[in-house]
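Internal tracking record. Fields below are filled automatically when a chain is submitted to the structure queue. Please do not edit lines marked as system-generated. If the sequence contains nonstandard residues, flag them in the REMARKS field before resubmitting.
Queue: standard
Priority: normal
Entity type: single polypeptide chain
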Amino acid sequence: MSEKPRPYKGPRPYEEQDQDNFFGRESDKRILIDKILTHKLTFLFAASGVGKSSLLQAAVMPELKNSPDRAGLDVIYYRDWASTPSTPVDPLVSLKTAVQNYLRENQQISTDYALDDTGTLDQFLQMCTTFTSEPLIIILDQFEEFFNYQRHSKYFTPFVQQLAVAIHDRTTATTFVIAMREDFALELNAFKQHIPLLLIDNFYRLEKLTPDKAKLAIVAPVEKLGFQYEADLLATLLKELSQREQLERYGLEFIERFHGELPLWVEPPHLQIICEQLWDAEWDNPQKLLTFAVYERKGRAKGLLENYFADKIAEFSQQERQLASLAFNYLVNRHGTKMAYPVQDLAQLLRVDEQALLAVLEKLDGARVLHKQSRQDKVWFELYHDVFAKTVFVWNEEFKRKQRRNRAIWTGLAVVVAGVALVAGYDGWQNYAHYHWRLSVKRGVSENVEVYRGQYGSQDWFGLQRYVAESGYTFKQIEPSRLFEVKAITGVESAPVELVRETFPTAG
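SYSTEM-GENERATED OUTPUT FOLLOWS
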């Protein structure tokens, strides 16, 4: 059997090598490239999951690098913002290193040639542009992560200041693109005093896919492989994807009030996750057809999306899920943003065995839930996509709730068992250390009084109460009123004295 092709990316962003399978963003690509080539600084804003990274890597960068009209521009793509207190990363040093690595990989400087990176960022870039095209385009992607990781670090202010100077520098042939989630746009106030009118200068807001563009993104990748979607499947899939996004954006009440008047959009990661699963189910279909029957069997859009992560994590053992839950506490923050950590740091924070944690994280990487990267001689992990953040957060909260409930049940059982053991122990002591009088079992035939071990009236869970000896008394001698059946005593030896005192108080 031949190796399975991969026309869809699932939750992973498209990269440069995926450009031939990237569809539906042609107009966005043209507009963004025009802005980049005519401005010193361009902002790309979008909601989480819309596809900024995919657009930049699979559409914009190949066009800038390979277009014959532009003689090939140098484009440096940078997004390694991760840093932790125990593994601090200076973004200025890291960015300069990325630029040097690009120049070496493209043989624009020799592998043993080291650029002077001790100066400021603008000085360093001015030196680099002597080896590159004009302009040298620097894309700073996922820029919201710079604020997440560096906001309170000593590297924050120097980076902001030096980046602002480099952007202002009109003598150096550089162009900057800053791409970030739109809900973090206010964080750019940190640049306000360094770059006036920063937000209104030049920006592009990337929207989700229209139904027509979504259709192209669904159909075109498999058409290259000779496959088609059944008409009913394609129509239903587009309808359910757009309705899902509309419901999340506007709410049911608003939709019912303005039915038919609201725009329809499709969220790219949802499209990719569903199409990837449909492809995995039918890629070897001899009819080369993706069918509505399989879509229906797998729960349609709702089931395919909601079960994607659940199906992956269900393959983990209970111990693995516990480690995954602990890791998710750090890999997803309260803003629903993915965070990256080295496995060593994460193991120390969680106080768990590093190798056991690494095995679980690598399993999540294999399931395309986490993304594994090597940085600074350490292995880092983060969510593959922000689109997972909500799903993972909900699963983790439910998992922890069940853990708390189970602990409460076991704690309650332990308390009950301890209480029963205490009561049973006390009952055993009562029936071992005490005695009582009892009328003979042959009552009516014999009126003898007998001595029994045990405390009268106790439960006697261990069956300790038993006949010990004859008392030497008869019923008539000790109980003139004939009401006596059982009478407690403290011991066999003291029985006669207690008997006399209790029966005839004046006799003592």
